Amino acid sequence: MTWQRLSAKMLAVHPVQEVIRFLPVLIGVLFIGRNGQGQLWSLIGLGIAVVSGLLRWFTTTYQVTPTHVRVRRGLLNRRELSVPRDRVRTVDLTARPLQRVLGLSRVVIGTGRSDRHDEGVTLDALATPQAARLREELLRRSPVVEERPAGSELARLVAAWMRFGPFTLSGIATIGVVVGSLANIVNETRVDPAQFGLLHSVIGHITSVPVAVAVLEITVFTVVLVAVLSSLAYVLAFWNFRLVRNEGTLRVTRGLLTTRSTTIEARRLRGAEISEPLLLRAVGGARCQAITTGLRGRGAEHGGSVLLPPAPIGEARRVAAEVIGEATPTTTELGHHGPRARRRRHTRAFLFACAVTGLLVLLWWLARWPAWPWQAALALFPIGVLLAADRYRNLGHALVGRRLVFQQGSLVRRRYMVSAEGVIGWVFHRSFFQRRAGLVSLTATTAAGRQHYTNDDVPVAVAVALADEAVPGLLDPFLVRRE
Amino acid sequence: MTEPVIDLRPPAHLVHRRAMLFWATRAALGWLFPLVGELLWLLLAAGGLPALIIFFATGVLALTHLTVMPQWRYHVHRWEVTPQVVYTQSGWVNQERRIVPVSRIQTVDTERGPIERIFGLANLTVTTASARGPVHIHGLDLDVAHRLAAELAARTQATVGDAT
Question: What is the ipTM of this complex?
């Protein structure tokens, strides 16, 4: 087997990417022309980034043998990463705009590794047809690549779903990035923001109107901005979304500028998760994610396990049911955890409101803060009651056949549907107050998704019975019956 | 309610008595930093009454912690290993029971920090394919830890599959 290189076109992509990343600095240097020490260092940084990008191409090679995928990288510190092919769970192809233009795709190979201190097996990037061939080869156990059947489509983006865009709040992150890079430019170029005419007149306007009007204006402006940016982010991320089931795999393709195509091996699928952030829930929307070994449901890999864009809750349930092969877990009535669990929800909300209000009262009293913060904080008490009631209503568990269903949360309500075969351990956690109330937080640990799924404040006997029923025999030697 | 209530019994074995010394020493080292800092403040920077009050409050807190915590932990920390299952109980104010099937174990190792070596103790760590699954048994006698590790490693080898 020969060692292969990444696509040579990456030699062109790396410098351009780095230049874009350093754009604020370059603008500062080229157009403002106030050379300073900081800018010089930034330019040196740019140079190093470009050179190391180029070096990465020269030092990275990979090899696909009948049994292993191997990647070698590093200039001084040579590393060889070797993954047995039967441990490959997912293959993720991503093409950023520039790579798309040049016909390239980045390949990320997901394995069941739980400790991730580095990027794992990432090939950035291959020619797209080559990447697609590699994906087929890795996820199809037979070496012969036959004619591919079309597969059945489970879901596709419906234009009407874009109404959920503003409620995802993903625009907040964009605002953060934009504000950050603007601050960077201002900092690098040392321009006084007040010199700009537009900004100057805006500041003048805000300071001239009454405080209440100014607050209202800023609020409306922010809400509109977040809504617009969130919708934009929705379209960018989920344009052309399709979920297709092929023999043995699930494939998600999506993206307007950056296209992404994730393939999950169905054999490794351990369940599905339906999550409803409060805003999205208010308008009847939900998200749906896969719980699978090789993809953690958070961080950089969050995107990889998405099974559906924010969509109507009915649609999320349908897709989850299709993916896990049964509909009952998505809608089944949940066992509630009783009055003591309810009281704990209320106690916590009450204590939180007390703590915040108490702190603000102290500051008002001792540090001469204005009175309105603690007066406003009084609203936390009724809000806390509502939140606690909702948190209790949403808290529950069920066992449907061999599938464990956990649900909890109010600000984000999540329902996990995990196959009991995927449970590789139990944790019964009891805080001091939980012990007094006879409750326990039951955690099922798995190698899939978030790695652990917890249901809070389950009555002890119920938790033990649930764990015993889900994984029969495991707890037998330790069970005792009390009258 | 006459219906029998189902519950888990605690694991069978206590950890070694010397574990109490280990926990106390570790906690004492932790308390050393704030106490020394406050003492310096009191003596060198002439912190006056507030510094004195804070110093004594910290001291009382540390003493209470050092007398209560190790004994409490000793009564909570328990372990049991059967041919099928590793079962542990740990914690003090907050307590935790962990159960891992032997067939899902990925690695078994014994670890000894400097303080543990002083007291002839070791702790056993059993990991599974879940990042949240590791089970630690702290404060085992060195011989017991080695014997358990060997036993579990042998049993783990006998299972097939990739334990996910």
Answer: 0.91
